[in-house]
Amino acid sequence: MPPSARLQVFDPDGLRQTLRLGRTPVCIGRARDCQVILDDSRISRHHCKIVRQGDRYWVTDLNSRHGTLVNGERIESRMLEPGDVIEVGVPTGFRLLFRLGGVPRGGVRGGTRRLDAHRQVSRLVLLVRAANRLLAQSVLEEALAVALETACEIIGAEHAVLCLQDARGELRPRLARGPQAESTSLEEAAAAALREAVESGQLRVGRTPALYHKRCGPDPAGAWIVLLLERPSVVGVTDSTVLGPQPSLLGALYLAGGGCGQSLSELDEELLQSLASMVASVIENARRLAERREQEWLEGELALAGEIQRRLTPRQHTHPPYLSVAALLEPCRRLAGDCYDWVELPDESCIVMLADVAGKGPAAALVAALLRGAFAGTVLFGRPVSDVVAALNQTLLRRSGPENFATLVCARFWPDGRLESVCAGHPPLFILRRSGEVECWEHGGLPVGLFAEACYEMTSIRLVPGDRVVLVSDGVIETSVAGHELGLRGLEGLLRAVPTGTAAGVLEFLRQVVVGGSRSSEAADDRTIVVLGYHGNRPRPAGETEPPRP
Q1: From CA 379, how far away is CA 391, in angstroms rounded?
Q2: How big is the CA angle at 295 (ends 293 and 300), to the nearest 5 degrees?
Q3: How far apart are CA 548 and CA 511, in angstroms?
Q4: Taking the chain, what is the end-to-end CA distance rounded to the nearest angstrom?
Q5: How does pLDDT run across 230-278, given as a tens digit for each residue?
Q6: Taken in order 424, 425, 426, 429, is the CA torsion positive or negative?
Q7: DSSP per-residue codes, 371-396
C-alpha cells in the first residue's frame, strides 16, 4: 500500500493548513469544484492537479494563467519529492509543501520524530519562558543571547550563530554560542550554510516556511539548520508604499551539531519559527526605538538651532534715529534659509540686507549664517553697496559649492534721504511714498555664489520723510492669497491699499494678508518682510519708540 501524502498549504500571510491527499486526481484552483480551493484572483479556476501513479505523486499545470512552480522552477508536469514546494499564482501567493507519509524522504526537510506528550509540553514551556525573557530584556544583546540559548535547547544543538543584516544588506555574525563560539571557523561554517540554503531555492526571503534543515547521513556533526529572521509585516502598509523600500530580511539563525542530525517534527519547526518571529520582533522594535531616539535627538537639536537663529536676528530698536524698522521672518521649517540684518556705520549711514539662500533646512541655514557673518564684516569698511554685494559673491564662491547660491537685496540709507540699493537676482525693492504711490526698483545683477565675474549695478534713490521701504523674499511673492499666487503685481496692489501709517503698521497689514491664519508648515518657502520708515529730522512716529511686534 503506498504511503499517504499530505499538503501543507501556506497562505500569503504565512498561515498553515495541513490536508491529507486521498483519492487522486486532486484539483487545485479557485473554482468551487476543486478539491483544494485557494481564494485568490491571481490563481486560475483550475490551476493544477496532483495525480498518484503507483507509489509516486505528480503535479501537472492545467494551462494556468501565471503557471505552476516547483522549488522555484516553472513546470508543466513533474514528479514530487518529499519537501518540494509548489507555488501557484504569483511568487507572493499560496505555497504548498508536499509531504509523503510520516517520514519525508531526502534531506531537505527531514523526517518527523515522535514526541511523547511530556516532551511536547516541555518544549512549549521553553518557548513561553523564552517569550517572557525576551519581553523582559531592555538590552538587545541580552535578548539575542536568550534567543540563541532557547533555540539550542529546543533542538539540542551544540553550536549557534546569530547573524544580523548590516547597512549594506550583508549578513554579519552578531552573537555565537558553543565550544567554538570564539572561532572564525564557526562563523565561516554559518556563512557557507546560509549561502547553500539560499542557493538551493528552498529558503527564500518572504516565503513560508523560512527554515532549511540539512542532514549529512548518520553523523550529526555535519548537520545544520538555517532559520531566517524576517521583519514582521505591518497591516495596511506594503514594503514599497508609505515606508519606501523596506528589505524584509533582518538576519538568520544558524544551528549545528547535536540534535540537528535528527529529524525535525512539525512541532519542532513551529517552535523554531515562532521563536524566529519573536526574535525578529525584538530586533525590529530595537531598531525602531533607536530610530525614534535619534529622531528625538535631532528634533531637539533643530529646535535649539532654530532658537539660536531667532536670537541672532537683529533687535528691531537698534537702528539710527532717522529710521524705523519692523521685520518678520516666518520659516517654513525649523531652520530658515532666509536672513536679514542691518548695521549702523560710523558715518551715520545704515546698510540693510535681506537674503534668500537656495534650498531649505539645515544646509540653507548654515549658508545663511555664513552670508550674514560675511555681510557684517564687509560693511564695516564703508564700501559702496555694489562692492559689498560683490564681496559676498566671492565669499560664497570660496566657502560653498555652486548649489548654495543666494539672492539678496542690499540697501544703504543716509540721514539726508539718500538711498543706494542693489538687487542680486532678488525680488525688487518697493518704496511706498508718503503720497501713497508705490515705486518698484529691481536693478542689480545675478544671484551671489554663481559666477566669479558677476558685476552688480547700484541704483540711487531719494527719500523724503514719511516714505517707507519694503523688502520681501520669494516666499512672500509665491504665497497663495485667495487661492492665487500673490506675485509682484499682487504685492504692489497690497502696498497701494496700505493705510498711511508707521513701518510697524505696514508690516502688520502685510502679515495679516500674507501670513494670515496659515501655519508655517503649510508654506512652501520661508517668508521674510522688512519695512523701513524714513523720518529724516522729524520725530519718530508714535508707536515706534519701542520695537514693533511682528
Answers
A1: 10
A2: 95
A3: 13
A4: 93
A5: 776 543 333 333 333 345 778 888 888 777 767 777 777 778 888 888 8
A6: positive
A7: HHHHHHHHGGG---HHHHHHHHHHHH
